[in-house]
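Re: export button greyed out
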Amino acid sequence: MPPDLTRRTFLKTGATLTTLFGFDLQLAAAQVRQLKISRTTQTHSVCPYCAVGCSVVIHTLGDRARNVHPTVVHVEGDPDSPINRGTLCSKGISLKQFIVNDQRLTRPLYRAPGAVEWKPISWDEAFDRMARLIKQSRDQAFEVNDAEGRRVNRWTNAALIGGCTNTNELNFLLGKFRFSLGILAYESQSRL
Amino acid sequence: MASLAATFGRGAMTNGWTDVANSDVVLVMGGNPAENHPVGFRFVMEAKRNRKAQLVCIDPRFNRTAAVSDCYGPIRAGTDIAYLGGLIHYTLTHNLHQAEYVRLHTNASFLIAYGFRFEEGYFSGWDAEKRTYDKSTWQYELDSQGYAKVDPSLEHPRSVFQLMKEHFSRYTPEKVASICGCSVEDFLRSARIICSTGTPDRAGTILYALGWTHHSHSVQLIHTAAMLQLLLGNIGVPGGGVNAQRGHSNIQGATDLGSWDHLPGYLKVPKAQQTSLDAYLSDFTPKPLRPNSMNYWSNAPKFTISLLKAYYGDHANKNNDFGYHFLPKIGANEDHSWGYIFDRMYAGQTEGLIAIGMNPVANGPNSLKMIKALSKLKWLIVAENFETETAAFWDAKKLAEKDYPAADEPAKIPTEVFLLPAACFAEKNGAFVNSSRWLQWKHAALEPPGLAKRDQDIIAGLFLRLRDLYQREGGTAPEPLLSMTWNYSNPASPSMEEVAREINGREIATGRQLSGFGELKDDGSTLCGNWIYSGCFTEAGNMMARRGQEDPTGLGFFPSWSWNWPANRRVLYNRASADAQGRPWDPSRSGLRWDGKKWIGDVPDYKADATPDAFGAFIMLREGVAKLFAPDFVEGPFPEHYEPVESPVENPMHPAVSANPLAKIFSSDLDPLGSPKDFPYVALTYRLTEHFHYWTKHVTANSQLQPSFFVELPEELAGQKNIKNGDLVRVTSARGKVEGRALVTRRMRPLTVNGQTIYQVGLPIHWGFVGRVKGPLINNLSPSVLDPNSGTPEYKGFLVNVEKV
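Workaround output, generated via the alternate export path:
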């Protein structure tokens, strides 16, 4: 390359050379500058940790074909959020490792009474067994009327806890679930 | 939250993260945002940079918030009421309060019944035998129409203002210093800054977090802060407020959607004696206490009946009280809050527990009691991203024998345990509500790994299985279950948009999405899953997913970014940012102003076209104004300094009544309390900036940054015990023990309390017996001692001993 050739003239030359060499040097030159995230699908989400509510952009890579599961390659602060303006803290910055993590639970596990270890169980089996146990406890302990004959419709020997790290919509469904069964003992992290 | 709801009308941060940038004085106390809410803290730094705001940090530890503050003062854990009481005393004795604001927007002028007094640690009405209060002298004096009598001059000896002056006259700087362990000079230095905002042209904010809620007197503590802010005219104004920095991504949303005694939208779970919908509504629908009180809760029947229609659909009609009888009822004096759930479980009265993303062994107080309680269950269902201490409780003997020699062998634990793999945040859509009450929609980015399921699919799976069982086999009381609506397009995997639309509410006949809670009806023609969220998913679409950037007021309200409850009002009680004529106290920072026909600025927390004199500014309260005097709380209408239940000293104010007389303590064999003779040091738990709660011990980067538990000790205490940095030390309480390396620092100074030297010990949370990195659960040490109003445990300021191993 002659020493007086600037990047601009080089690229111009490149364009004319395309026909000469049969491929586009300009494109090749641009290609090396592209980041991995240029080919990702970007999804807007919100950090699940504290309640500042930083928006995040989750970058997934996958060709969107059927049966191909995208993987997360990068998570960054959303520059549009008026709260975090693209920044994340020392916790939020490692969110990718939270999502893609070899310690994630990937199948239902069951521990029988007195057992010393977990055993895998299918979802169907687990649902059937859980529903049976819930029904047994509820049928036996459910109180339709209290000692004074007032309708109370409650089940007080079971409890349901959770929800502070899940969505409003899940919390609303937990409410429906709880009242279907008559559960009063319903609590979340907000008490702690 | 219980405190803010009683004082102002709603249990939530009054302002918001972005609004902190509008402050002139930021008081951080009971929180450490620089490390625990770092991105939120940038607005504090913006206020410092752009407005020359002063940051005051009062904390037992010289933490990173303190490091960038303009004024830092140490304090003994659990004495914040004394400190804030001292600030109220300083404000009143130096006449620094914003007099016109106090007259207009608080109950300072209300007259209290004859006989109200405070003596020797008790308010009037204490029944020593029943250990409870008869509140009859804590009430307003009413006129013949049932309205509270007022004295606008605030001179009447029984006016709230005069009673408050008298109550706080004991909180002199010298007294504060002797209780809190700070110097009089340090206290006065902070008071001069904090109490400088009682002028119309200055605004001060308070940021707090779990350092305030983790006490047996936390609700009164936050009420003290609220009182100070009301005196200084800092509520409702941009740059002001009492701002709770909540610790989990949707802790606000979960609270908004109910708890043991709340239905969605802060409606109440009915009580056994409310045997009809009419009885329930008449108990719950308040009467106004002043002629100009808007008393917005008078609409409670509309909210309740619309919720019942969302729950029970066609099974809810006028003839069956809209399905009211399907709801469970709470018996007299029953408590099903956290501490009681696990106390009853430990007593063997509970068969089953479902924990959805919740880890009580790690995050409840008194871990051994939690483990022993779970050991008595017949079944336990846990849905999680990672294995937790709660799921693996039955193996505690093996996984952490040193910490739990008293744990049972697995063979002796009859509990059937299901550990269900759940999707993480990135794999689900739906809304989180941040501290600022912003409902921000997130979109699912990918499928859950392996066989993991979304939580909604797990709950739906259980619901549908149970419904099917009851339909086929019958059973006890199938009606509440069979009458519950679950009419989602895919019942086994409800679409979160569909649920969000149901939460927003619609007109049943037409299916039209409602534009807000103003459209709700009490005749069964509307349904709405949570009235305070009505407006979040309208005919215009999903307002929570909005990404608008505009900021028309320039105050950082960003009204078209996401959507916030209620009604997209960014600053709560914003009517109080203006005077009697509707003119902003500070025209350069105008949150809301009356232009003669309507209110301009933020969405008014007021009727949009009502004249400034039509209503009081606090529309959710019967008084119409905010409460300096709040008879709602169980241990007094004014806050009083009570020592933590485990304390190194007797209460210098009234030694005979040292701790909160109504603090809830338990009497099981696993609930011993320690005395200063055996456990002389004050312990406080805290978070590190590298970790989030008990989650990131599963994440590589965070585990590498902070791999192990440590014990932070003051130099002087370490010197006495010949402990050097890095030495292994054991910390014990009456409940249990933990071991870790010593971190000897100068961040916690020895404090002189009532003439006695007191040392504090810092204990980071974050470790447990499962995870990529392991360490002791800090709650091996903490007591099951609760605030009587909120049920929050005393994680800060309990007693421990420290020894070199």
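Chain B is about 25% helix and 15% strand. The button fix ships in the next patch.
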